[in-house]
Amino acid sequence: MPDINPIRIIRKYGLWGTFVKTLRFAAGFAANEIENRYYRFKHRKIRQYRDPESGELHVIEQGFKNQGVDICDFRIEASDYNEFKSLLPFPADYHGGVDSGVWEEKIVEHYIAYKMLELRDFRQNDIYVDVAACNSPWARILRDTLNIQAFAIDLALPEEHKKLDYYRVENATKTSFPDSSVKGVSLHCAFEMFAGDDDVKLIRELQRILRQGGKAVIVPLYMHTHYCCFASPEYWGKGHADSAALEYVRLDMRGIPSARNYDVVALQERILRTIENCGMHSKIYVLRNGKSLSPEVYCHFILEITK
Known about the structure:
Elements: H1 6-42, H2 54-66, E1 71-74, H3 78-87, H4 103-116, E2 127-131, H5 138-146, E3 149-154, H6 159-162, E4 167-169, E5 182-188, H7 198-209, E6 210-219, E7 228-231, E8 246-249, E9 259-261, H8 264-277, E10 281-287, H9 290-293, E11 301-306
Parallel strand pairs: 1-10, 2-3, 2-5, 3-4, 5-6, 7-8
Antiparallel strand pairs: 6-11, 7-9, 10-11
Helix pairs in contact: 7-8
């Protein structure tokens, strides 16, 4: 996301440069709003996506119980969370900065992976992989603070990370890591983007690269009351969605071909069964007190996979 701090912008671009950038931003915002209004008019009966509400989350939890899938509670101690933020500080401009509205959610996601994978106890030769890392500094932070072999992979990386050999351009469903070589893996707000059969292929790749006793954490695990996905307007209705999923549109986003939300049955058939067939084990967690840390926190379900 762009820098939205006015003081930093003025210092960087000067008054005239800031004025020009403001005009360009306003013009771009107006263009997007016109496009969205036209899109809503053209597709008046279009299905727009919304997140499950608290009552629907309870229905999903009950669906797990009805299918015999145990759910474990996950709670975050505020003092431990604050210690984590001090020990492993993210840059102030991460994900648009502390005032972006999602900054705290992103830090919580990394805290959950940190705790579940027990990253603080990793030894120097233990390998950790941040899958679909994009521009995240997480791997670098772990190397600098905990001195562990942390890697980050994605289909594309920003220029600032390409110079680091532990940031790699790789397909997560077919990585270069040797068999049984990785102790921990996590995906932060990423698994939903594995379209088609790539979600299943990723599970099989995890089985290959994880060593015995190794773990993978998917946070958040996006669930809904029904199997569905959403796309941004330029991709909606163009065949990117799973044919079995109900497709919605998100008018407030761009660049999203398809983001998947499982229901209990689809998760069982596609993911939990694949985990079991691969000889691994799964646990579903629910974050119970995220809102007490910050109203920004929306993570609810978490998937842990152990080999």
